[in-house]
Amino acid sequence: MPVFTRFSESSQPGDGVPEVETETEGGEQGEGERGETAAVAADPAPGATRAGDGPRLTGLRTWRTRAAALRHRPALLRTWRTRHPRAARAVHLAVTVIAAFLVLGALLLPNTLPALKAVSFARIPAEAVLGAVVVLALPRRPRLVAAVLYGLGLTALTTVNLLDMGFNEYLGRGFNAALDWDLLPDAQAYVEDTLGGGVATAAAVGAVVLVLLVAAVMVAASIRLADVLSRHRVRASKGALIAGTVWVACSALGLTLFGGPIASERGAGALKVHAQRTVESLRDEAAFVRQSKADTFGNTPPGELLPDLRGKDVIFTFIESYGRSAIEDPIMAPGVDRTLDSSTEALKKAGFDARSGWLTSATYGGSSWLGHSTTMSGLWIDNQRRYRTVSAGDHLTLTKAFQKTGAWDTVGVMPGVQKGWPEEKWYGLDKLYDAFDLGYRGPKFSWSTMPDQYALEAFQRRVHGKKRDKPLMSFVILTSSHQPWAPIPRSVGWDELGDGSVFDAIQKAGNKASDVITDTTKSRQEYGKSIQYSVTSLTQWLRRYGTDDTVLVFLGDHQPIARVSGNHASRDVPVSIVAKDPKVLDKVADWKWTQGLKPDHDAPVWRMSSFRDRFLKAFGSTPHPSKG
Questions:
Q1: Neighbours of 143 (CB within 10 A)
Q2: For range 428-444, the mean pLDDT
Q3: What are the residue ranges spanned by the domains of the chain?
Q4: Cα separation of 446 and 190, whole Å?
Q5: CB-based burial, 412-435: b 16+ in 10 Å, e otherwise
Q6: Most CB contacts within 10 A, which of 144, 377, 609, 613?
Q7: Of the given ranges (106-110, 224-228, 287-291), which has the lowest mean pLDDT?
Q8: Rounded to a whole number, what is the distance in angstroms from the first to the last CA of the chain?
Q9: Is the pLDDT of residue 491 over 70?
Q10: Nearest Cα to 404, choosing from 628, 616, 627?
Q11: Mind telling me which residue stretches traverse the membrane in this protein (predicted)?
């Protein structure tokens, strides 16, 4: 039978709670209901249905029922407060306290993980005092608008602080709003290659949801506090006056607590720093465009470039994340130093000698291409905008100088490149061998597409070992020491490499990336092992395939992330030149580099951007500047 529903006022005075009554057509009615039956039948309550009702009428009544229920919700809440006053007061106080903690926490949140301590929040933020004063001075509607804007400001502040934490942890610097958005797709690609596409998608969605959640929470907290302050205007005014007086006194006297000032301007200061950083970056970009057009060797004729290396096979090799910490950190250094010492001795037995020093990288923890381009171009390329600017121009790279002479064939071997790479032309490479050109059929090792040993053997088979009319200049990027350093390949017999399938069992038996990423000690240990593997692979290849005319220059592109290299670690990376011909090393004798593959602690340190010009001059190149 159809059921008719209607709302009537509660029988209890003042409640205002809707009471639902139902009656069945043709059924009995209780006492006191007979007088209402005709009215109900003639005009059913919203949502009720009768025989002959159409879908449109039914939908309209359903909507009216829901609207009526929504109108009565405040009444329900008032009733609950009336019946449970103590619980209501406790909830009200708890929500207000939580809102205050959220706002104060956002204003005092530091931007580095080491500073994220309880004592960092024992401060009086000026932004909270000013916010209270503004709220108290405004009428209701402007106050609501101000609270919403304040909450959005807290959202922006929290977001940049969290980004700063991540960038400081991985890249050793804060987030730059003008430059670093371009790095986010690369970060997602790294997560996808390391932990899988599902994790990468979840991380991206989670980041967006987190920002929206922070915005909703901060706006709600700001509105809540503004409402509380306005309803207790007299006491709130006195509290704001007292807090402001204390803040001014602490600021004037320079009072500190737990190593920091009591009077804090952390929130406004952080936003100011980011604003200044953005403006300076935009100005710097314009200045760099002019700088990149000038070149010490821009007009040098081909015949005056690198005359003292003619006839030599020259190989420039970058080892991923090979930094000073690998050689000097007490956890990682013992194993790496043994590898460098034993490799130096093995090379000597094969007739090779080496000299080593330090270069200060333009990047830290990642963005390896910035280190590569800085070394090869002689320009300080420390952000993505600079990289795009210079790689789109014709500034002479060290590798292109070899191509310009016409005396060398030039190739690039880059197993980490898995998509189009237009920079090939800027680097002056006649041919590029990427991840798909080396014939590898084995497993990936996390981000690294193939073990360094295989990449070097493929380089030998496809390029270096072939007969040619000219000597070869090679640009090789090794990737096995790329984070997260799990799993790490192991060396196998060079004659066993085949198509790389031999690494299947090694990859399966290795550590999982997720286990190493979350363990700082294990990350440092495995990082050291990965550097040992890469150095061993490279020096074994040189002993096996190097000739009297081989010249190898190898170096790191940057230090590993701060969690591995340590807080406040330098940006220095080792660089070595190895050759059989003593005349080659005689050309760099005045560099005062350390003999062997391990540079001394006090060996010369140069900016990475100075290497191109020093190398060109050392091997006979004549400067002919261009002004752009």
A1: 19
A2: 94
A3: 3-78, 84-278, 304-355+389-551+561-570+584-593
A4: 9
A5: bbbbbbeeebebbebbbbeebbbb
A6: 377
A7: 287-291
A8: 91
A9: yes
A10: 616
A11: 90-109, 115-137, 144-163, 199-221, 241-263
* DSSP label at residue 113: S
Question: What is the per-residue pLDDT across 266-323, written as a single tens digit (0 to 9) for each?
Answer: 888 888 888 888 888 777 777 888 888 889 999 999 999 999 999 999 999 999 999 9
The band of 392, judged by pLDDT with boundaries at 50, 70 and 90, is: confident
Per-residue model confidence (pLDDT) at position 378: 94
Rg (CA), the chain: 35
3-state secondary structure of 74: helix
Phi/psi at 551 (nearest 5 deg)?
-125, 120
CB neighbour list of residue 115: distance below 8 Å, 6 or more residues apart: none
The tokens for 252 are 């004037």
Closest by CA to 405, choosing from 169, 622, 112, is: 622
Element (H, E) at 472: strand 472-478
Side chain identity at residue 263, one-letter code? A
Tokens coding 62: 């359903």
- Per the CB < 8 A criterion, the answer to whether 451 and 500 are in contact is yes
Peptide bond preceding 484 in cis form (omega within 30 of 0):
yes
Per the document, the length of the chain is 628
Nearest to residue 605, comparing CAs of 557, 571, 559?
Answer: 571
The C-alpha atoms of residue 438 and residue 432 are separated, in whole angstroms, by 10
Tell me the H-state helices in 378-442: 384-391, 398-405, 423-426
What mean pLDDT do residues 38-48 have? 42
Geometric angle at alpha carbon 264, from 262 and 269, rounded to 5°:
155
How far apart CA 585 and CA 582 sit, in angstroms, is 5
CATH topology of domain 304-355+389-551+561-570+584-593: Alkaline Phosphatase, subunit A (3.40.720)
Q: What is the dihedral of CA 491, 494, 496, 497, to 10 degrees?
A: 80
Q: Using an 8 Å Cβ cutoff, are 19 and 11 in contact? A: yes
3-state DSSP percent of the chain in helix, strand and coil, to 5: 55, 10, 35
**CA 144-150-153 angle, 5° bins:** 145
Residue pair 152/220 in contact by the 8 Å Cβ criterion: no
Tens digit of each residue's pLDDT (9 = 90 or more) over 332-379: 999 999 999 999 999 999 999 999 999 999 998 888 999 999 999 999
- Residue 254: exposure state from Cβ atoms within 10 A (0-12, 13-18, ≥19): exposed
Query: Which residue from 117, 161, 403, 444 is spatially nearest to 260, judged by alpha carbons?
Result: 117
Q: Is the pTM for the entire model greater than 0.90?
A: no
pLDDT of residue 40 exceeding 50: no
Closest CA to 615 of 405, 294, 305, 299: 305
- Do residues 557 and 364 lie in contact, with contact meaning Cβ atoms separated by under 8 Å? no
Helix, strand, or coil here: 105? helix
Q: If we measure between CA atoms, which residue out of 584, 599, 609, 559 comes closest to residue 315?
A: 584
pLDDT digits (tens, 9 = 90+) for 137-194: 889 889 899 999 999 999 989 988 888 888 887 777 778 777 777 677 777 676 766 6
Cβ-based neighbours of 123, under 8 Å, separated by 6 or more: 108, 257, 260, 261, 262, 263, 264, 266
- Cβ 318 vs Cβ 372: under 8 Å: yes
**Going by C-beta distance under 8 Å and a sequence separation of 6 or more, which residues neighbour residue 152?**
215, 218, 219
CB 451 within 8 A of CB 432: no
